[in-house]
């Protein structure tokens, strides 16, 4: 195995791309003052004994620029959906109207904008952690190959390649965070 070790960089790239894609979804859920159905995407509802995305228990609509509605299909789940929205940290107070949950989107004040930039920072840190976990897996593969007889030069080469890839993806996370924070703070 000594000279024929080739790290599966495609797998590492795919997994790091997945972390970036997940970050984009999380950033899309952060509102910037306008109503968007995507703000509810990360919210999971305890329905039928499992965690279910909110868009699988009701219809999410945006009837106007400052209102999101959720038309819950099962009357028994209305309170669970409302509870999930309240506990999501979005800072939106749901209003019930039968099976329709109305979510008026308040104007963002300076304090709320600052809170949202901190939430964006948390999402970005979670993305960085995911990328570092992929790096750790890659480094573990290299160490295993080293134990199986890989030369020290090859080990240094592959470790450098994994670290370079990690640095590139961490920079992408930082760039996206900077853009999202600027978008949130824009009045």
Automatic annotation (TrEMBL):
GO biological process entries: cytoplasmic translational termination
InterPro entries linked: Ribosome_recyc_fac, Ribosome_recyc_fac_dom, RRF_sf
GO molecular function, one term: ribosomal large subunit binding
Domain Ribosome recycling factor, chain residue ranges per copy: 24-185
GO CC annotation terms, alphabetical: cytosol
Xref: CDD domains: RRF (cd00520)
Residue stretches spanning the membrane: none
Keyword terms of this UniProt record: Cytoplasm, Protein biosynthesis
Domain of life, source organism: Bacteria
Localization in the cell: Cytoplasm
Similarity field: Belongs to the RRF family.
PANTHER family: MITOCHONDRIAL RIBOSOME RECYCLING FACTOR PSEUDO 1, RIBOSOME RECYCLING FACTOR
Function: Responsible for the release of ribosomes from messenger RNA at the termination of protein biosynthesis. May increase the efficiency of translation by recycling ribosomes from one round of translation to another.
Annotated NCBIfam families: frr
Protein name: Ribosome-recycling factor
Lineage of source species: Bacteria, Pseudomonadati, Pseudomonadota, Alphaproteobacteria, Rhodobacterales
